Structures are given as structure tokens and as C-alpha cells.
Amino acid sequence: MRFFNFKKLDDLKFEVKHLKLDDVIKFEEKLSKVFEPLKFDELKIGNRFAVHPMEGCDGTLDGKPDELTFRRWERFGAGGAKLIWGEATSVVEEGRANPRQLFLNEKNLKYFAELVKKTRDAHKKIWGDDSDLIIGIQLTHSGRWSYQKPFIVFHNPVVDKLTFIDRKRRTTIPSEYPTVSDDYLEKLEDQFVKCAKLAYEAGFQFVDIKQCHTYLLNELLAGKTRSGRYGGDFSNRTRFIKNVVEKIKSEIGNRIKIASRINVFDCLPFIKDDTGVGKPVEYPIPYVYAFGVNEENPLEPDLTEPIKLVKLLYSLGVKLFNISMGSPYYNPHIGRPYETPPWDGYIQPEHPLVGVARHFKLTAEIKKNLQEDAIVIGTGYSYLRHFLVYAGEANLKEGKVSMIGLGRSALAYPDFFIDLKKNGMLNPSKVCITISHCTNLMRSKHNELGQFPTGCVPRDTVYAKIFKEMKNSQNLV
Predict the structure, then answer these.
(1) Among 164, 214, 233, 288, which residue's beta carbon has the most beta carbons within 10 A?
(2) Where does the NADH:flavin oxidoreductase/NADH oxidase N-terminal domain start and stop, copy by copy (predicted)?
(3) Cβ neighbours of residue 363 closer than 8 Å, sequence gap 6 or more
(4) Is the peptide bond before 298 cis (omega within 30 degrees of 0)?
(5) DSSP state of 394
(6) How far apart are CA 30 and CA 265, in angstroms?
(7) What are the structural domains of the chain?
């Protein structure tokens, strides 16, 4: 099924109107706001584009950035986006999502410092000045998606059936599987603080305490059925993030900023129906196992608690937010609307523009409920291809977002801002086309390192070659 058939902006506008989304997805062709700087406390961000945290799955087995990591970050640096939100980096060995995920520790510190330096050098080589370039890093624990074994906050009767303790045997989590203890979580708080200090030493200007995509900290937010200090009511479910922020502030002060990428709508798992189209799994009502959902209809968002969360974080001094939703493991169309699903995925159950509108609408609601000096970065733009800048401009002008975040687009087209600055438009032949081959590479584990690196297959010959090698080794040609 093909969704994106838009040669001209008017074609896209027509479809948006046809889908009755024109009150949410708007376009402004006269570009100005996207080029404007933005104040971030005492710092200056030189334009309104951010590179989202995009994992390359290309670190060394002990978690250092490797050759392809440096290449990717340097391309981001040279590209001209003035905020680079560094990728998911584990704070503990057992919390890594794959054997090549980055891992920040004392032994690896100098390599992360070199990564920051080379990214800045690449930026200065093209743009001359890096004083308005902001670079951060996303700190994470992968929770139930950790590759060595799952760490679950609570038993989810729906998601446990999709979480493997032995992938080869297709064995899922049994009812007697242990949940993470309060003691483990308390020690993990200190590990996040320790890594924030290391990030500061490496030269990062902010750390993201990751609370999205159903990893551990996101699952803590949903832990209504968990007992103990970290579960049950909202205060307990936000205890971990409160403690981490307060400890970082206490031990480092304002020398490093604190940010958070947050799921505001987890939604439900989806599976293929008989035609390959996604459908929600069967679920109990009330559905008390997700964050930001209507418990009586978890296919609908309820922003009551996400708004409480961002207001709480703002009161603790957090002023940089990156808004996301869904899980890449069981409802990828919610987080990243696509044209073609990954091999282990399903055909979109809705027009991808509906997903784009959902991102725009929920992000605007979050921004509306924060103070003016809070920076809110939006998601969901890549599906719009070369027209994304016009949607971004409209959202900026209407105050619905502070910055435009690009993830898949940045992998495909890291120098997009160079072309935009020079030509006033993006090149249609260089943009992301959302066919999910980057995800297919991420899902491929059958090499000597246990993980293929990922990047843009259609737009980057380096990854086209890796993709071919991966397919040959699986006899998929």
C-alpha cells in the first residue's frame, strides 16, 4: 500500500484536508522562524532544528563509540542543526538494548570526549562558529528490552506476551518472572547521577534522562500496579525521575542542563491481522498498564498525567523537553509514521498523516501547559519528506513547538540545513522516504558482533553495502 503520492505541496494539503486534519497540520511556505536562534537559559541555540537521538548500533562491544559512530556524529555536526541530542547511552552494562549500544563509564570517558570534540570540529569547519551549537546525550536503561535479560517494572498481561526471555526458543515472560526491586532502582538512580557527571566531564552540555519508548523509566511512569516506593500513585511513579534530577542538581549544580525525552502516550501493542494490517491486541478494561492513555479506551491519549509530569520537572529546573510516544517494539506507527513497515512489522492501520497530526496535537498541548522559557521539541516530521520544513514553520509561528526534531530525516539527510539555507528548500531526492530499512538493520543480529550497524540504506552507500551484506548472510536476496 502506498500512502505518499505527493509531488507538490498542494497535493499534500489536499490530502490533509481530505482527512480532516487541516486544523492540526498546517504549512507556511515563507520561512523565517526555522532560522531564528533560541535562548536556553544562558545558552543560545542557533536555529530551530534538533537532531533526535538516533542510535547507530555501531559501538564497540564494551560500549565505546566506534568508526561509524564518529562518522554519523560528525555528519550531524557539519550539517548545521544547532541542537544535537545524542543517542541512547546505557548507564549500566545490563541495561544495554543491544551488544553495540553505547555505554558511558570511566573507561570509555575519553572516547566520548573525543566524540564531542570531533562533532564540534566538524561543525566549525563548515559554519565557523560553534558557540550556538548545543550537544547533549541521552542516558538510559533499556528495561524489559535489555538484550541480556528483561528488567520489568511490573507484570503487563499484554506486553509480557511480547517480551522474550529466550528469543531463539520464543519463550516469553512467565507470571513468576521477578520484577526489579526497589533497592535496584535506588542504586540505579545513583548510576544515572554518576553518568551525568561523566557526561559533563566529556563536554556534553545537557543530559537527557530518557523516559520514552517503553524502556525502564517510561515503564516506571506506567507502574500503577507496582507495589513499594516506586509504584502505585503518581508521586511514587515519578519518584525515580524526581530523585535523579534533584541529585544531579545537588552534585553538579547548573554546570550541566537536564532534559528529558518523554512518552506522552504509550498506546497499546499492535499485531498483524490476516491481511498484514496492524490491529490492537486484546486488552483488559480498565487498561492500567500504560502511561498517558485513557484507561477505558487505551487507543486514546489522556494527557492529564503527562502534563503533571512536565510541570513537575519544570518546577525542578528541567526546561528542555523532547516529546514522543509509542513503542518501537509493538506499535511503531504511533512513534514514527511510515510508508513501509519493517520486516517484523505491520502495514499502517491508519494513514500516516493521522500519526503526524497526533504528534503535532499532543506536543502543542504539552507546550501550552509549560512556561514560555521551556523548550519543547516536536517529533513526527520525517514522514512529510521535503515538505516538513513548511509544517515546522507553521507550528513554530503558531507557538505549538519550540524546535523541529528530525530523527530518520537526519540519518538520511544530515546536511539538510545546508541545502535549506542555500536554496530555501530541501532536496526531494535526499530526504527520508520512511521505508524502515534502518529498522530492519537494527533488528538484524546475525553477525559476529551480535548486531548490524544501522543507517539510511536508500541515501547512504555505506549502509546500502551493509544492508546487502546482511541480506546475503540471511539469504534474502
Answers:
(1) 214
(2) 33-267
(3) 264, 323, 376, 378, 379, 400, 401
(4) no
(5) H
(6) 32
(7) 9-473 (3.20.20.70)
Helix axis angle for 304-315 and 352-368, nearest 10°, is 50
> What local confidence, expressed as pLDDT, does residue 153 receive?
99
The residue with cell 548545543 is 134
Question: How far is it, in rounded angstroms, from Cα 45 to Cα 144?
Answer: 35
DSSP 152: B
Whole-number Cα distances in Å, 111 to 53, 66, 141, 235 = 18, 9, 20, 38
Task: For residue 117, give the H/E element and its range.
Answer: helix 109-127
Please give the backbone phi and psi of residue 202, each rounded to the nearest 5 degrees, phi first: -75, -15
Q: What DSSP string describes 203-252?
A: T-SEEEE-B-TTSHHHHHHT-TT--STTSSSHHHHTHHHHHHHHHHHHHH
Alpha-carbon distance of 407 to 335, in angstroms, equals 11
**129: Cα within 13 Å, side-chain hemisphere:** 5
pLDDT in tens, 186-236: 999 999 999 999 999 999 999 999 999 999 999 999 999 999 999 999 999
Distance CA 341, CA 137 (A): 28
pTM for this predicted structure: 0.97
Q: What is the DSSP letter of 177?
A: P
Residue type, 73: W
Among 406, 455, 410, smallest CA distance to 430 is for: 410
Pairing between β-strand 293-294 and β-strand 297-301 as defined by DSSP bridges: antiparallel
- Helix or strand or coil: residue 378? strand
Residue entry with cell 528529558: 260
pLDDT digits (tens, 9 = 90+) for 419-439: 999 999 999 999 999 999 999
CA separation for the pair 405, 323 (Å, rounded):
9
Q: Which three cell numbers stand for residue 90?
A: 546505557
